[in-house]
Amino acid sequence: MLGWLRRLIGDELPDDFPGTLADNEHVLAAATATQGHLVATRFGLWLPESGSTRRVDWHLISKATWDNDVLAVIEAEETAQAGESVIITDLPAKRFALKSPGKLPTIVRERVTDSIRARYRKELPGGAAWFVQRRLPGTQTEVLQVRPEPGTDDVVAAEIAREAAEQLRGESE
Q: Superkingdom, according to UniProt (predicted)?
C-alpha cells in the first residue's frame, strides 16, 4: 500500500509479530517495547507475553495510562456471571516502555474510552462497586460489567448486577 495512505489509515503489522489477526482485524497503531510489540486493532490491544502475544479486547481494558514513555495497562478478568452481567476484577498493571510510541497511546485511550457507554459508582455494604456498560469490539452488543471494590459484599453486588442487567434488557426491547 502507498506509504501516505498507510500513514492515514493505520500502521503496518511488525514483520516479526508472533500473533495472528482475524480476517477483518486491521492494525490501527503499533509500537515496540522491551518485551515485544504492542499492536492496537479494531478489536483490542495485542500485548507481548513470554515470547508470544495475546489480544486483550477493548472492553476488558479497565484503564490505560501514558506517562514518561510508559504505557500502563490494567486488564479486567471476568470472574463470575450475574444474570446477563459480568463480575470483573482488575489484574495488576502491566507496564511497557515504548521506544517509538507513535499513535499507540492515543489510539489506546480513544478505544478504551469509546467502549464505555455508561458508568456509575454505587455505595454497597462494605464498600462500593462500579457498574460499567461497555460495547463489545466489532459489534453493537453491550455488556454490563460490575467491578466491586475490595471489602464490598460480593453477593449484594452480584444481585444488584443481575437486576440492573434485567432492567437494561427491558429498556432496549
A: Bacteria
Domain that holds residue 41: 3-172
The domain that holds 164 is classified in CATH as 2.30.29.30
Per the structure, how many domains does the chain have? 1
**What 3 state SS string does the chain have?**
CCHHHHHHHCCCCCCCCCCCCCCCCCEEEEEEECCEEEEEECCEEEEEECCEEEEEEHHHEEEEEEECCEEEEEEEEEEEEECCEEEEEECCCEEEEECCCCCHHHHHHHHHHHHEEEEEEEEECCEEEEEEEEECCCCCCEEEEEEECCCCCHHHHHHHHHHHHHHHHHHHC
Mean pLDDT in runs of 10 for the chain (173 residues)? 49 83 92 93 94 93 95 96 94 95 95 95 93 92 94 91 85 65
Cell 484503564 belongs to residue: 63
How many CB atoms sit inside 10 A of residue 16's CB?
A: 8
49's grid cell: 507475553
